[in-house]
Amino acid sequence: MTVWSRDGDDLLLSVRLTPGATREEVGGVWTDDRGAAWLSARVRAVPEKGKANAALIALLAKRLDWPRSAISLESGDTNRLKRLRIKGGGEALAYGRLSTIIEEQGEAS
């Protein structure tokens, strides 16, 4: 099971976001009660007026070394579980940088 899927040249990423954290990090996999896998992420920003979503996009752009403008929120605006689209991120990110980030934190629960 993986936290991403391909949509043409784009990468669709499933993320479980924890806003208001003491430190920002991304890595590890969280599995929901249905068995779906989500990339774990934490940001310092509070979940008000899109601040946490913007912080998540900035964090992913930095960690993946990908343009911030190429990452957008597909769903989950006010939910902890989010789907992001990374334009042009298909194979380059899925099998390289993203895999490394997931493995860095190990399995999260």
Automatic annotation (TrEMBL):
Pfam families: DUF167. It comes from the Bacteria. It comes from Sphingobium fuliginis (strain ATCC 27551). SUPFAM superfamilies: YggU-like (SSF69786). This is UPF0235 protein GCM10019071_15400. Belongs to the UPF0235 family.
